[in-house]
């Protein structure tokens, strides 16, 4: 087993973003990354959430600047579409990098930097 990193090397969990790391918000951002833009109902159904629960997490992500919410109509029915912002894409990439670092550390496969 390798020696633990010294105090000068932050633990990979320090790179996790509390806003992104929540399971539901990470799921929202992952779906938006995969689809570029998604309708509210699609996200709700894909992630098996209630309208209220999804709305609460969308509000948190919007306040952080990670998603944009677009309201409009499809025919006569109101629709809400969501997309990742550039900042949201960056935050998701950083979260994934921190998770990869953590997995590599736990697997003992980290490279010396």
UniProtKB/TrEMBL annotation:
Top-level taxon of origin: Bacteria
Lineage, top ranks: Bacteria, Bacillati, Actinomycetota, Actinomycetes, Streptosporangiales
Name assigned to this protein: Winged helix-turn-helix domain-containing protein
InterPro entries in the cross-refs: ArsR-like_HTH (IPR011991), WH-like_DNA-bd_sf (IPR036388), WH_DNA-bd_dom (IPR027395), WH_DNA-bd_sf (IPR036390)
Coiled-coil stretches: none
SUPFAM superfamilies reported in the protein's UniProt record: Winged helix' DNA-binding domain
Species: Actinomadura rugatobispora
Winged helix DNA-binding domain ranges (all copies): 25-103
